[in-house]
Amino acid sequence: MRLTYRYNIRSLSGRLIGLVLFERKKTKNAFCRAFVKPGSTEQHLKFKGIKQNMGAIWRKCSVAFKGDLKKYSRLRIPYCSRDEIPVYGYYAYFIKFLYKYCADKPEIDLKTVTKEELEMSGCPVTVKNMIEEGYIPAIENVEELINEW
């Protein structure tokens, strides 16, 4: 299906009734095609399991630890360069930390690891320790970020 718009009317884009609408600005045409849901691959299922496990670990963390990560994410913004996009969500720092920590320890599987297993493997449990061990970027005045997860 093809539509042509006149009189400076912009074309439609998005999904509507099982169709995907998109525009071609150069010719001011709109096209539509049937929406086909992409199939799940083995990689998708792997990341789904990892994400669900990380979410379970995050939910077990203390409110004080989450507050420290939130404070860290706000204090980190001025340290970002022009080329670097600041991370405003403190959950993202937690995910980055877990990936970096588990990259150093190949015996840890992110899909099945628990909070207790991470603690037993020597995982840093405060934001201050995460910074000191280099898992998240350093900032000044981290002495007060000492609440354990």
How far apart lie the N and C ends?
A: 56 Å
H/E topology pattern? EEEEHHHHH
Shape: extended
Mean pLDDT: 82
List the uncertain runs.
Answer: none
Strand arrangement within the widest β-sheet reads: 1-4-3-2
SS-based class: alpha+beta
Topology, number of strands = 4
Count of helical stretches: 5
Largest sheet: 4 strands, antiparallel
Helix content, binned percent: 40-55%
What is the count of structural domains?
2
Integer-rounded radius of gyration: 23 Å
User: How much strand?
Assistant: 5-15%
Description:
- The structure is a single chain.
- The chain is α+β, with helices and mostly antiparallel strands and 149 residues long.
- It has two domains: 2-34, no CATH class; 42-132, no CATH class.
- 40% of the residues lie in helices and 12% in strands.
- It has five helices and four strands.
- A four-stranded antiparallel beta sheet has the order 1-4-3-2, with no helix packed on it.
- A hairpin with a 4-residue loop joins strand 3 (19-24) and strand 4.
- Helix 2 (63-76) crosses helix 3 (90-104).
- The longest helix has 19 residues, at 42-60.
- 11% of the residues are buried.
- The mean pLDDT is 82.
